[in-house]
Amino acid sequence: MILFFKVLYDFLDEFRYLNSYLLYFTIFSSFTMFGNNGIKKENNLDPVNNFDIIPVEVNVKGILHFETEVIITDSKILYFNVEDLFNKLGINVKIENNGNILSGFVENENKTYRIDIGNSQIIVGAKNIKSINGIVQKMNSIYVESNLLTEAFGLNIIFNFRSLSVKLDATFELPKIKQARLEKMRNNISKLQTNTENFKDTIVVRNYHLFKAGTLNWSASTFQTSQSGGANNFGLSLGSELLYGEANVSIFLNSQSEFDSRQLLYNWRWIDNEKKNIKQAQVGKVNSQSISFLKAPLLGASITNSSNAVRKAKGTFTISEYTEPNWTVELYINDALVDYTSADASGLYLFKVPIVYGYTTLKLKFYGLLGEERIEERVMNTPYTFMPVNVLEYNLVGGVLEDENSSQFGRGEVNYGLTRFLTIGGGLEYLSNIPEHTAIPFAHAAIQPFSKMVINMEYAHNVSIKGLVNYYLGSSSFLELDYRKYVEGQQATFNTANEERRVKFSFPSKLYAISTNTKLSYNQFIYNTFNYNQVNTVFSGNYKNYSANFSLTSNWISNSDVFLTSNLAMSFKMTNGLVIRPSIDYNFSSNQLMRYGTVLEKRVSKMSFSATIERNEQIETNNFLLNFKYDFNFARTYFSVSHNNNGFNSSQSAQGSLAFGGDNGYVKTGNNSALGKGGILLYPFLDLNNNGKKDVGEPTVFVKDVKMTNGKAITSERDSIVRISDLNSFVNYNIQFADAELESLSWRFKHHSYQVLVDPNQYKKVEVPILVVGEVSGMIYLHTADDLKGQGRITIQIYNDHNQKVAETLSESDGYYNYLGLKPGNYTIRVDDDQLDKLDYQSSPEEYDAFIKISEDGTIVDGLDFNIKAVEPAVPLEKAEIILTDTSKKASIMHKQSESHFNTSFGKILDQEGLFYSVQIGVFKNYVDSEHLLKFAPVFYEFLADGMIRYISGKFDLKNEAKAAKNKIIVKGVKDAYIVKYKSSKKIDTATIRN
What we know:
CATH superfamily of the domain at 39-172: Copper amine oxidase-like, N-terminal domain
Oligomer: single chain
Radius of gyration: 40 Å
Distance between the termini: 98 Å
Shape: globular
CATH topology of the domain at 39-172: Copper Amine Oxidase, Chain A, domain 1
Helix content: under 10%
Number of helices: 7
Largest sheet: 24 strands, antiparallel, barrel
Structural class: mainly beta
CATH class of the domain at 39-172: Alpha Beta
Strand content: over 45%
């Protein structure tokens, strides 16, 4: 450490004019670290005397829903039960001093808080807020006023008094929201493992266009050096849909070199997973897996019947590579995010990659502490190619290399799932620039005896034989064995070794807050005259905001001495966000220090700074580097200046993107690439006529929160369009809506979940209909001998104008009932007949007619009260048998009623209006003499379609009255008499009321 500061002093003494840079940087860091200390504020409120404690529904970003208790004062000031709220948000909270103090931390363990009811103050980090009556204790719980929660903790709260609901958001990522985000990511992995998809209300498929322009990328950079002048670079990329596929064209220019065709990139891609024979096709500059080494870009075409959807087989393989220290790395399989991790202090990262069926695009995205983004895309047939049983897939690619000889390349491959654990494949590869054996037949097999072991074997004629074994020991540790033997003199690859032997072992572990990983690897390359050996040992560990990595690398040839070097890298993240990364390289073979240095990094909002100082003892140079980056909404800018023994260097760069077609003149500006991306435009609207389409006069609806997998939805307050940008083309995205996000209780989403396939290089319009529903309500009263009271647990049924039951509800304990959710139209509301029969009750009235009209606010039909009471017992009748016959002498036994009737005329059912019940006496082929039916007056008849005549007895408003009349007729001998129901002279199906 003394040596480090000596070098620093010598360096700054040599370049005194640079001292000001470090001084400014130190002052900036100090102000950031200590500038907030001692902030005090007072916030006084009126005393809390008259209040109510009620439960409210809390909605956090449409993702988290829960119920918590609040205090509402007479002046409508809201207080939250902090302990209950924090527990449900996942914020750390502890009770101290017999419930008078709440403490814990927010965002991270370094930002602590303390709520002290005795001193009426909240301390969060460096903030100290005193509030008289803003913190109260009621019912042994501490309550904090809502605005005070916003000020102290960054919890933004919007309370709706009508619905007693709260919309809550935070200036930081809440633990429960983070958990939901990670759960969503795990669900992506789970989908890979199960090959299942969730049911969606609506599936939105591709829209095809012959041509549609949509995206643009631009970049510019310049470099200056004190020795050789400078250079300028420019780049422009255009993206569109052309001939139903994605078309991208890019050109890159450099001021120091002449234009070369390899600076022009173009590609056309078409995907349709619903097709059988060809699911994907590409034309232009394409990527291909190859046995041969391709030393130039490939200009050609490819087709395959393999889907771009991720289809998961069992098992995993491991990616263990290096990037920049502390960078975040995301893993995408076929454009679906499945995992992410952070590199350690040396840049080491590790992924367990799920094995998927078929040809796979594996993509890694790297994000630096200064906001840098780098994408490494590998198009590969993963080390383990598995197919479902009895499924065959092929891949064909061919074209010309952009080398000096315009070499021709072609490759055809098939894979077949022979069993669940065995896949075989093979094909032919051709490369014209190989001096001998331009054609390479090959075959391979993948075996998975059980989920933790995978074996892959490959034979390439006149090139090589390969074998690879991956075995997981326990849940995390893994062992990998790799063996390759090359045919002597082969020229397909640049490898000159006869054999390659590799062994890798990784052992991750975790104890409390400390996580470690030990990685061992051994590589041996066998040549004709010597063997080259390499052993690498890496120990890495993390504890809270600290990480360290120590590696030992040894190399030797045959029996020669070992060359042993080491690297130690550490990373410390301070409470103010400053990251310090010292590192050192040491040569144990010569006992010499090779290199040492320190990097300081700091990110503030959209700005990032870094300073690097380094001493290289091997070439005796001092290096100093300053970086500054600022992210605008439309561009990412970068500036750097460096100095070494050779002089000064500086560079500046800017990059951005434009996405067109966002409607209403909206152009999406961004600082990342938009090429090959797409977007979704959601149009929530009130579907007043219920046709699912937005018509003239139907207003749009503002929906703030929309749940989306792997995307961010932004709703415009100007036009209420929900715009979702930066989505991958040809990929399905799931979108969910919640009725709780709508401002009116009378509004309902027609479909709550959508699956949308993104079109390339453009925004896709999706209309989201919202129905306006009506409400019916009333009371159920029970009549007894001397009382009238509300009756609960009574079922009320709702029928549409086609006599189809569309809904039902139960009355509450006080007799009140309501149902909200009826589309515009005519409805009939009545008490459940079956329940009345079981209870031996009758209802008055029998039913209500309700009309829900088209309205933006929804129709409310209330006052639909029903009175129910016990059915009166039937009076026994005097029996006297008579014979009833029609003119064809058909007879039926009936009984004479003791009382006399004077109305001997029959009425026509066709003349009867309104709704009524009756009792069917019989259906006859001919007329029945009126004297035979005199005792059942009033009697009505109608002609049926087959010429028969139906006779019914009586007109009753209540079913129970008809039931009593039916019992009397049955007693008289008409055993098959039953109740019928008519509405406006039309008989209604009464299959459910025959008894």
